[in-house]
Amino acid sequence: MLSNKLWLSGQTIHSSHADVINQSFFIFLSAGAGGWSPLVSDRYQWLEVDLGERTKITAVATQGRYGSSDWLTYYLLMFSDTGHNWKQYRQEDSIGSFPGNSNADSVVQHKLQQPAIARFLRLIPLDWNPSGRIGLRLETYGCPYTSDVVSFDGGSSSGLVFRSPVSRRTSRDVVTLKFKTLRNSGTLLRAEGRDGLGFSLELEKGKLLLLKQGRTSASEPRRLASLGSLLDDQHWHHVAVERRSSHLNLTVDKHTERVQIPAEFSHWDVEQLSVGAVQGFSSQKSLVSKRNFQGCLENLLYNGHNLIELARNNDHQVTGNVTFSCAEPVSVAVTFTGPQSFLQLPGATASSSGGVSLGFQFRTWNKAGLLLTFDLPQQGGVVWLYLSEARLRLQIHKGGRALLELTAGAALNDGQWHSVEMNSKRGRLTVAVDKEEGGSAQASPLFPVAIESHLFFGGRPAEDTSHECRNPFNVFQGCMRLLTLENQNMDLIMVQQKQLGNYSNLQIDMCGIIDRCSPSRCEHGGRCSQSWTVFHCNCSDSGYSGATCHSSVYEQSCEAYKHNGNTSGHFYIDVDGSGPIKPQLVYCNMTEENTWMVMQHNNTELTRVRPSPGVKQHLVHFDYSSREEQLSVAISQSEHCEQELSYHCRKSRLLNTPEGSPFSWWLGGPGSGRIQTYWGGAHPGSQQCSCGLQGDCVDPQHYCNCDADRMEWTEDSGLLTHKESLPVRSLVLGDVQRPGSEAAYRVGPLRCRGDKNFWNAAFFDKETSYLHFPTFHGELSADISFLFKTTASSGVFLENLGIKDFIRIELSSSTQVLFSFDVGNGPLEVLVESRDPLNDNRWHRVRAERNIKEASLRLDDLPVATQEAPTDGHFHLQLNSQLFIGGTASRQKGFRGCIRSLQLNGVTLDLEERAKITPGVQPGCPGHCSSYGSLCQNQGRCVERTNGFHCDCSLSAYTGVFCQTEVSASFKPGSSVSYTFKEPYELSRNSSALPSSIYSDMTLRGENVSLSFRTNQSPALLLYVSSYYREHLALLVNKNGEQDVRLLFEGHTQNTEKKNMHTNAIITVHFRHIFSTFSLIVFVSPESGDLDPDLARLASLGFAGCLSVVQFNTISPLKAALLHPDTSPVVISGPLVQSNCGSAGSANPYAEENTHHLSGMKWTSQLGLRDITIVVLHSVQLTGTTKRCTFVCHTGFLKVSLV
Q1: What residues have CB less than 8 Å from 19, skipping those under 6 apart?
Q2: Cβ neighbours of residue 1022 under 8 Å, at least 6 residues apart?
Q3: Cβ–Cβ contacts within 10 Å for residue 1100, how many?
Q4: Residues 6+ positions from 1104 with CB-CB distance below 8 Å
Q5: Does 1187 have pLDDT greater than 60?
């Protein structure tokens, strides 16, 4: 509720032109006549109201001038305590302007989000009715404001000391105050306990620091928090410090930071509170600042005690030397807001000696900008004083060249006030920054440096376009004050009143600098930097991306990495996406059908117990590489977690009996864990081991093997799978001190599989169906991600409405996704268009983000689309309706299809649970192979699962999660693998039992044979295939290191012609027969006398080298021998060792074994009615890399390809 109205008729009114105030202006709003209208309608007009005393202003209302076409459409509000040093009022920290009227009669009222406390109010017109003039009737609302004020002069004796009663003990302390100052450093407050232990609040470069001081003066202070910025602006700032038992809350203005109290303060109490003076703290040195506080305080309260009032009443608890008023120095600043800003001052007062002496102070965030320029007398050139790379530079130009250059200072864009002095006397030119602290530069020019007529600060008029005078540097955006020329202050109020100099686009008697990095809008540790108008977040090394470092660059689970096509390895996992939990490094094991996330701790090895003398129990604590919150979320969002727990024992009991007290136990679960008295493989609370549950313990009278207390070594091992009890935090082993007792333990890493969020999906089968959830809260930053698949060409994925604001993501056409929202600045849209249709019933990923800096939209792997947000505009997204998924509140334009893994600000919405109770929506969504089937390589087959898919590698010569891992083996001369098929009559008799799809059609049209090899042996037999029809195929390397192919049909041998192998060709063999039934023998001489003598001798030598991914149609004999020897028709002879020798990474050009290639051989021969032409693709060479050999046998011909 608004307080009493403050009628302007009782106050003092000032205007930018005092003689144009219409005295009838003081009529109440809507009272009839009058209003304010200046003679000139431009942006240099203002209306000032003196309320007579400081007042709490809660609202303002405006109306146009009575009976006219004069009204304001936009305006600014300024407030001040003294009539100087104005401060612009901003809604939401960003919106500086207020909407005005649309006619002369209606009243538009604005409630101030934060009441303004001031004596003076100034209204500045920004825009008005284009068909009229500036016109205004004004009314303010508020109530009287009272306060107790005290000022400190910064001297050693200026301060207050409050001593707390000795008997007082409390776990909560509260200090609140307001302060204003022009100094950017100084000790504001200190709280001291016993032995000097305490806290202090200190200003350092305009920021308020909370520091902890140790018990001795030699101990270094420790910074606990930093809050606020630009606090040296001579405006009131609110500070509150609240101490509770375990933490501190520090508040500066509207921002609060929670700080954990160091452990040494657990029993700490305030004994003395010092305000303003450094020496009041047990004579200890200043923590940061070397100066006392200089400025004013008001309403200083400590635990309800008004310390200023106690000091005024000479209360014995408060001592000090202060002044009970606030004397404020007048410092008129000027703000350069943009490209057209400049300040022109006369230089006629310059010294007659021909020199110049000037000075000023400035503050800015920009690295570059023109500070000052003037012409030298008699066309001697132009002086430019400017910032470049945050350093001060001076150049004197004439005729297009630089006559002189000087540089001084560094890092001058830090937002602090910096002083500049320029002196030219007696032929010596000096430029100094921050006096002795910042550095200076000197030169002795051969020409006089003086001002011809005018000084220009910040820029030059646009009409001043002569070549020498044109500004070659960036415009200055920032503040200046204390401008002096020949040691005389320049009166900027006279400039404002048009009585001195000239100016354009300036804000006079105020510094409009804003710290856009305080508080920092950069999330997750992103580093904030800024210019005058914008801020930038450096997200490098943070693990997050985007304009505000909001979105994680990592996936939320190993499952997600797998479906990006990754294989086993270490990955960073961000379990809550854009949430506050940091990424963690885990191992993702993708070698099995399930994908496991493995989180290690400091000891996963089997460890012998070494008891300590005199200690009955052996305690072991496990430290995990992941933090507590990371472990907790990872466990909760996994479908299954497990951890191995084993105890190896020899006369060392474990759990005793279910009725007795256990000798040992473990602690598991969140935090430090809860005591658990069951062992791996048993149920929680059972006080049993796995053998007790299964009934096969070595002693049936006990429920653990170790409880049998035998002299023989035994063990109790198993998996802990109750997620609420994981991970294992500690082990307590109790029966380890008896003579003869020995034990060892092992706690494996925590392993979790299945991402409940990744596959959480719902199917919307109607345009009118939808799911609804509570209102989405993403006021300052919001990210939304999900996957969808559909056959429809349009539909709304998500919508949430407010009174005026909204947020929506929709499929606007079959190739377009649209992200739109409104935070009060009007609708903003971000569109991404795909070349390919999106209604192809395949999964597509959408990621949308909106923050105060920009909005972005990403679709699949297409380039991200962005739209910048207004620099000065609304940025709070205010929603109040339910969140609709798959539809809208109007039930129009609903989405038909599947939505999966929907996350808002890193939190997954449980679509499946909500779909179970919602008509028209079905939980889950099958059909993943259409999207992920391409991940299955090398003839691997995608198989659908309820939640996801897996690759079936049974018909592939490869293995692995995506059938991407080569199956290789190292052979010795005596090694062999033989794979035998059934005879023809068996095949025809029992076709239902055929071992492979190659026999599903007895009229075979062809065979495919492929392999990779590496060897340094020549000659060598690589492959031998024989049929029951006395037909053979042999692949060999001859004694010259050449590839050779031998074929035998119906007892006739085809010998190849050997030629130099330097030209590429193709081997093609035409024949009428196929290999109906085989005995396939790999890399060994067959026990048969059917071979020709040369081939038999070669086979007897065996093969030494590496063979990999051997495949005959859908049969993989080498894979069967290595991975399934007991269930496959294989015979293994000699040593056979599985290795990675066939992978590309294992190739070594300097190793003994080398890879062989086939190139350029051609043979032509005549054999009865069969014309046989053989052309070999590659010759055999020693290169050190694996090559692929592929044979394709078709009806009537054999094709051999070696790649």
Answers
A1: 39
A2: 1011, 1013, 1035, 1036, 1037, 1083, 1103, 1107, 1189
A3: 12
A4: 971, 972, 973, 1015, 1017, 1020
A5: no
> Comparing C-alpha atoms, which of 1015, 1065, 1006, 1062 is closest to residue 1036?
1015
95: DSSP letter = B
- Looking at mean pLDDT, say which of 89-103, 161-175, 189-203, 589-603 comes out highest: 589-603
Classify strands 369-375 and 382-388 as parallel, antiparallel or unpaired. antiparallel
What is d(CA 1162, CA 1143) in angstroms, rounded to the nearest whole number? 30
pLDDT per position as a tens digit, 267-283: 788 888 889 876 544 44
CB 122 within 8 A of CB 46: yes
Residue 687's CB is within 10 A of a number of other CB atoms, namely: 23
Give dist(CA 609, CA 619) in Å, integer.
Answer: 10
Q: Where are the beta strands (DSSP E) in 328-477?
A: 333-336, 342-346, 356-363, 369-375, 382-388, 391-398, 401-408, 418-425, 428-433, 440-443, 454-457
Q: 483 and 457 in contact (C-beta within 8 Å)? A: yes
**614-626: b (≥16 Cβ within 10 Å) or e:** eeebbebebebeb
State the CB neighbour count (10 A cutoff) for residue 980.
Answer: 14
Angle at 50 between CA 48 and CA 55, to 5 degrees: 120
User: pLDDT (tens digit, 9 = 90+) per residue, 184-194?
Assistant: 999 999 988 87
Name, in order, each residue with C-beta under 8 angstroms of 118's C-beta and a sequence gap of 6 or more: 51, 54, 55, 57, 79, 80, 81
Read off the tokens for 645. 């727990």
For 985-1027, the pLDDT digits (tens) are 444 444 444 333 333 333 344 567 788 888 888 788 877 877 7
Strands (E) located in 851-987: 854-859, 865-868, 883-885, 897-904, 907-908, 921-923, 941-945, 948-952, 958-959, 965-966, 968-971, 976-980
Cβ–Cβ < 8 Å for 308, 471: no
Q: For residues 646 and 745, is the Cβ–Cβ distance under 8 A?
A: yes
Tokens 């069969």 found at: 1170
Burial profile 650-677: b = 16 or more Cβ within 10 angstroms, e = fewer: bbbbbbbeeeeebbbbbbbbbeebeebb
Please name which of 27, 35, 31 lies closest in space to residue 128, comparing C-alpha atoms.
Answer: 35
Q: Could you tell me the pTM of the whole model?
A: 0.80
| CB-count burial class (<10 Å; 0-12, 13-18, 19+) for 430 | middle
Strand partners, 345: 455
The set of residues, in sequence order, having a beta carbon less than 8 Å from that of 31 and lying 6+ positions away, is none
Structure tokens at 533: 């108008």
Token pair, residue 407, equals 């540089």
Tokens of 614: 């005199």
Confidence category of residue 81, pLDDT binned at 50, 70, 90: very high
β-bridge pairing 159-163 and 318-321: antiparallel
SS3 329: coil
Cis omega before residue 727 (within 30°)?
yes
Q: Are 736 and 746 in contact (CB under 8 A)?
A: no
Q: In three state form, how does the secondary structure of 587-610 look?
A: EEECCCCCCEEEECECCCCCEECC
What is the maximum alpha-carbon separation in the chain?
A: 130
List, for residues 366-402, the tens digit of each pLDDT value. Answer: 999 999 999 988 777 899 999 999 999 999 988 878 8
CB 416 within 8 A of CB 438: no
